[in-house]
Design a protein that fits this description.
Chain B: Pfam families: DUF1290. Chain B: Belongs to the sbp family. The structure holds two protein chains of two kinds. By secondary structure, chain A is an alpha+beta fold. Chain A folds into two domains: 92 residues; 118 residues, Protein of unknown function DUF881 (Alpha-Beta Plaits, 2-Layer Sandwich). Helices cover 53% and strands 20% of the residues of chain A. In chain A, the strands form two sheets. Chain A has a five-stranded antiparallel beta sheet. Chain A has a three-stranded antiparallel beta sheet with strand order 4-5-6, covered by helices on one side. In chain A, 21% of the residues are buried. By secondary structure, chain B is an all-alpha fold. Chain B contains four helices and no strands. The chains are: A alpha+beta, B mainly alpha. At the A-B interface, helix 2 of A face helix 1, helix 2 and helix 3 of B.
Chain lengths: 241, 123
């Protein structure tokens, strides 16, 4: 150190050298933290912008949903008008009675109307856990079981069908989604309660055929319970808004 | 006298130009380091004015204070206590005291000078 001091005496004394190092470090720390703070400020402002954007999108969405609701209400009102018109038509011309009845049936199928009347209720439940079976697929309800049941019900003249309270329409889709099934985008877990409006005697007979749907379901370790209901009510299918 | 100032400017530029991101957990350490550095700097100026300046004390104080503050913050993070507040408090108080002392010394000097000038003009 003494050597260094001596050699650089005239240009850089030891004291000054130390001071220089301290000052450089100091400047570095201050500049660096200023930079850091600036970055933080920038990040904060972009966050705020994003939030505002999100808010405006949300408001737009709400407005759209309200508009959808208004439109669907309008559609319902128009539907009602058509029905009234048809009914008045019947009064004047009895020949058209059949056609109107058919139209009513089709509306039920489309889920445009609240369905109400005699029917049956079928509950499908996953089988009890079976330690011998390694594969849980062997005792849970799959969408294929639901398909079978629905097809059978439709063939035997069910007028309206609902699963866990959601109307199944002519153009509904059912999808397997792991342990749940998706009906028109809504997920439903087991147990599945399938309600069908129609002639309950025919429906029950159709399901209980030897080797029929119930037998097949029981074969697949599913707990099936069937009951008759004098007055089933189902809501009309809601238009997704 | 101009060399330390140049160093300060150089360090400042270096700090502004580096663009390394540090995790937000360590921002406490940075703020403490800034405080410690400022404290030592003003402490050095005060010592110089009081004519008790010792470069060994100054340099060792500068680095040791920064290290101590960072260590305290580090310990605080692991103990779940906001120990860095202690460092901030201590350095903050000392910073104000040092600046107050510097201000007083400068004021007395100013007064003395004025007196001398007055004397000179009277004479």
């Amino acid at each position: 150190m003494m050597n260094k001091k001596n050699s650089k005496e005239n240009f850089l004394s030891r004291k000054q050298f130390q001071l220089l190092i301290v000052c450089v470090t100091m400047g570095f720390i201050i500049g660096y933290s200023y930079n850091q703070a600036k970055d933080n400020r920038d990040a904060g402002s972009t966050n705020k912008e994003l939030l505002e954007q999100e808010d405006s999108y949300r408001e737009e969405l709400i407005a759209q949903q309200e508009r959808n609701k208004e439109l669907s209400e309008e559609a319902n009102a128009l539907q009602e008008k058509i029905r009234k018109y048809e009914k008045s038509f019947v009064a004047s011309k009895k020949d058209y009675t059949k056609l109107v009845e058919e139209a009513e049936d089709l509306r039920l199928l489309l889920g445009d109307l609240n369905a109400e009347g005699k029917g049956i209720r079928i509950t499908l439940q996953d089988g009890d856990y079976n330690p011998k079976s390694a594969n849980p697929n062997d005792y849970i309800v799959h969408e294929s079981h639901i398909f079978k049941l629905l097809n059978e019900l439709k063939i035997s003249g069910a007028q309206a069908i609902a699963i866990n309270g959601q109307r199944v329409l002519a153009n509904s889709y059912i999808r397997c989604n792991g342990p749940v099934i998706t009906i028109d985008g809504k997920q439903h877990p087991a147990p599945f309660v399938v309600e069908a409006v129609g002639d309950s005697a025919t429906l029950i007979a159709a399901l209980n055929l030897n080797g029929g749907v119930v037998d097949q379901l029981l074969n697949d370790n599913i707990v099936v319970s069937l009951e008759e209901d004098q007055k089933l009510t189902m809501p009309k299918a809601k238009v997704e808004s | 006298m101009w060399l330390p100032f140049l160093g300060l400017v150089f360090g400042l530029a270096l700090g502004l130009l580096t663009n390394i991101q540090i995790p937000s957990i360590y921002e406490n350490y940075l703020s403490i380091a800034v405080l410690a550095a400022l404290d030592t700097l003003f402490g050095g100026i005060r010592a110089q004015l009081q004519q008790v300046y010792d470069d060994k004390v100054f340099v060792s104080g500068f680095f040791f204070n920064i290290a101590l503050a960072a260590g305290l913050a580090f310990l605080g993070v692991y103990l779940g206590i906001d120990l860095y507040l202690a460092a901030i408090f201590a350095f903050g108080v000392r910073l104000f005291q040092n600046i107050a002392i510097i201000r007083r010394i400068l004021l007395t000097r100013l007064d003395e000078k004025r007196h001398e000038r007055n004397k000179n003009s009277i004479e």
